[in-house]
Design a protein that fits this description.
The chain has 88 residues and is mainly alpha-helical. It has 4 helices and no strands. The longest helix is centred in the first third of the chain and has 48 residues, at 2-49. The relative contact order is 0.08.
């Protein structure tokens, strides 16, 4: 009789741990999506701000999307820029 309680308790603990892990992952994805959306909004603001000065826009835009800056903010994965970091 007691073994049945142990099995059910173990299943509940494992399920709880899995749910906590999924919630954490969901929060991280949500935070990453919010950061990417904020970057997109910022780049759109820059495009409207410098619409009459294309050379200045190009310089500011490139500085905003630099691989090192995006990696440091956690917006993009590090693995995607392994080749780009070698070129820097």
């Amino acid at each position: 009789m007691n073994w049945w309680l142990y099995v059910c308790g173990s299943c509940l603990v494992v399920t709880s741990v899995l749910l906590v892990g999924l919630l954490r992952r969901c929060r991280r994805w949500r935070c990453l999506a919010d950061n990417r959306l904020e970057l997109l909004r910022h780049l759109i603001d820059i495009s409207f701000l410098y619409r009459d000065r294309p050379q200045l826009f190009s310089r500011v835009f490139r500085s905003e999307i630099a691989a090192r800056k995006l990696r440091n903010t956690g917006i993009v994965a590090t693995q995607r820029f392994s080749l780009a970091s070698d070129a820097e």
